[in-house]
Amino acid sequence: MAETRQWQLASRPVGEPTAENFELVTVDRPEPDDGEVLVKTLYQSVDPYMRGRMRDAESYAEPWDVGDPMRAGVVGEVLESEADGFEEGDVVTGDLLWAEHAVGDADELRKVNPELGPVSTALGVLGMPGVTAYWGLLDVGDPKPGDTVFVSAAAGAVGSVVGQLARLNGARVVGTAGSDEKIEWLTEELGFDAAINYKETDDLSGAVAEACPNGIDVYFDNVGGPITDAVWPRLNEFSRVAICGQIALYNETEVPTGPRKLATLIEKRAKVEGLLVSDYQDRWGEALKRLARFIQEDEIRYRENVVEGFENAPDAFLGLFEGENIGKQLVKVAEFDG
Amino acid sequence: MAETRQWQLASRPVGEPTAENFELVTVDRPEPDDGEVLVKTLYQSVDPYMRGRMRDAESYAEPWDVGDPMRAGVVGEVLESEADGFEEGDVVTGDLLWAEHAVGDADELRKVNPELGPVSTALGVLGMPGVTAYWGLLDVGDPKPGDTVFVSAAAGAVGSVVGQLARLNGARVVGTAGSDEKIEWLTEELGFDAAINYKETDDLSGAVAEACPNGIDVYFDNVGGPITDAVWPRLNEFSRVAICGQIALYNETEVPTGPRKLATLIEKRAKVEGLLVSDYQDRWGEALKRLARFIQEDEIRYRENVVEGFENAPDAFLGLFEGENIGKQLVKVAEFDG
Questions:
Q1: Which residues from A are below 8 Å from B272, CB to CB?
Q2: pLDDT per residue as tens digits for the range A19-35
Q3: Between 20 and 30 A from A67 (CA), which of A82, B53, B107, B151?
Q4: Distance from A236 to chain B by nearest Cα, in Å?
Q5: For chain A, which domains are there?
Q6: H/E segment holding residue A293
Q7: ipTM value
């Protein structure tokens, strides 16, 4: 019987995850039942939200069990189909396993059109991060021309799209990132008006104030923690805060503490709202169509940080917490020769 | 020339305000210019937000200067009018001084109809606190029948109206207060489904969970701090948090710290919004008309905690931070014989 490899959760991390939390296991290659397809993984996504699933705690993402394979966004090629509408050779994307091959329910897979761009983008700018940026900014953040939009983790898969959409929407765009290379990409290539290297800044509050002379109307928060502490005091009256992620806090072993800032919201009548892309399932295609056009017109640019080889998937994931990636962090598992 | 007395800010408090921060001063009674009226104070309001004005920091309420008279919501009788539409003997309300007599701009005063209820209610249930409760709950909190509405400082001027409006709106209503007498008033008289004496509870989180078996859909937050820490984890998906006050934090000398809870908002796609009643100037009358009818029909009840004598105004204010008042805290300055 054919075999395949998958990464399983070997143990739950305490604080920062390490390589020991993952185990590479060889298993029988599964076969599709009625309504299912067998997918050969081309690219696998690693995302900050996965840290939550490694924890044994109720969250919006169900925890993974120790000893079970982990799940991930995957782009792959259909090897066998037992489902109407899918054929061998189709490129599909969906939530599958950290595995070289996996079986998926046809209802939970989307076909990828390879003519829209490299198939890997179905995990990035033309996938979950892109849609998150699109509806998170436009529906929750609701920027108006002339607004100042501030985005943290601005060089990440979500943040880089948020910033460019905000620019297209007529906003002044300011972001934070953790290296000079990222800062240069944001300001030279993506059209950010200003960008702050938070790792090189002693006075984050002062840097935010200087970069946002008219205050902040929309804050798209991917990070939380000290960057949020520096941003909130600069919020304008009737500003909006979209909370998309809090990666600065995900590896804390104790409940993290910080200054209590809710009184700011009274003074500013600001609105803070949490955001999950799964609430936009019905408007997924609308966002993708628009993003694809912006990419074609070179109005939105993207980068991918591709780690080669399935055996390096845990390293790619761990790199997220070091802020190593520019743009979307991916693992290339097999060559696409379509 | 006639004289009058006023309370001036003698010094800025550090931490909890004390009697030394206030000075009772006798001054010439002012005379109204064109467009102004001279008002004899009947009742003066003391409110938590005044703590912010004693501080030398920018806020939504401008800071008072040391050596200047302080300002307050007042109900009074017109002694002299130089303004069209106001006559001697009219009862008016507005933002005037901590003073026995003060001059006010006619544009900034509202006439009080003594037939709607005792004139003191123009500072409470039929005044700023009532309107805050009305629009804060209905516009920001937006409760639906069957929702659980949680209100902190539930026995206060704002909270007691919030809870009763939520009950009328078909919600399950739960609140916190700081004495058994208050708890009894809330559950026996005002129709709260449950109330928690936070001063007598070792396990606030557990008490909130027990009182809200279906979670919390609307949290009307007057207090902040540890009560908010206990409430947020119980927020339901798509719940709303109206931040009206953070009295638990107003006397802190350092920036108060607490657990970072913003990730909760992602999981729950909850919305948190700050609230200032001044944004509802145009809808003030609408709220008052409705509240007056509910009071007439005994659907909404209120209490006032009246401190007698102008010389006791600072004590009445300081009592707010001890949680002494049930309902609206007032200072009675002169008898109304209208």
A1: 262, 265, 271-273
A2: 999 999 999 999 999 99
A3: A82
A4: 12
A5: 3-124+304-332 (3.90.180.10), 128-278 (3.40.50.720)
A6: helix A284-296
A7: 0.90
